[in-house]
Amino acid sequence: IRSAGQQFKKIPDARHSEAEIRKNLIEKKLIYGMLTLPSNMFYTVTLPATLWFFDRDKKDDKILFIDARNIFTQIDKAHRQFIEEQIQNIAIISKLHRGQSEDFIKLVNNYFTKGVRSLVENKTIIESVASKIVEFLKQNNEKDIPNLAPKLKEISSIEKKIASYQEKVDMTEVRKTNKSQRLLLEECKPFFDTIHLMLKLIDKKVRQFEKAHKDQKETKIIKQELEALHKTIKESEMFFYHIKWLQERFPEATYEDVTGLCKLASLNEVKEQEYSLNPGRYVGVIIEEDGKTEDEFIQEMLNLNDELETLNTEARSLESVISHNINQLAGDR
Prior knowledge:
By secondary structure, the chain is an alpha+beta fold. Helices cover 62% and strands 7% of the residues. The radius of gyration is 28 Å and the shape is flat.
């Protein structure tokens, strides 16, 4: 309310002042990059947060946008986190942008080292657990059960291949080393493909046994053993998965824009987006895999179906009890 003749100075709203600050920071070339985190990374905030990276010595007017909303490890239904490898995979994008390709092949080399070490360390556990499951199924008259033991002997061959590559590798020759690393991953891939096929058959045998022997105590034990087997194999395979993730997105060990992940945007492109600093506007959208193998997805669906059947059985039982009680109250017998 104002009296006649009074003039009030227009005060910009918060959104306008924020946009001006953002525009000034961009045009003065102070922002190096923007990184959007996944949702549910903090216990008190469910929305995805965005990290700002400043660089006073930046020479060009381009901004590196990284959308990491699809990169996370689920802790529980409500919370997520980054594991060390996921942090390194995100950080390598910036290093590639700065021309540090040697860091990329060193990271891949490190994953090969950790991956084969994990395979060797877990070999005895995998053999022991797999042997228990196979023996149990045989004792219960199951036939045509895959035996993982002979396949696991190939771990020694993989170990030798990686050792041979590492003896010859020269980290200063980025292009040559990158090519060697890509070939090495292709040589390791058949081992895991075959292991997953064999596990798929074992899963099927265990499901068949479970359907026929739901009330047996051994059923629960064998399922726990099978889950442990999957977990141990996945633990070793994870490092090879990270190599594949990096090589698929940066095949030449150099920076390039990747749809759904990163984009190096020019000042004109930022202007077209009205100086927005939301990475999602620049990197585009791609449907990311959830990190599950086909076997893990099928197993999860079967577990959910089993849970649904249990709930349906309980519901029918409760329905019968409720119906009986109402008839009792109404005097119907």
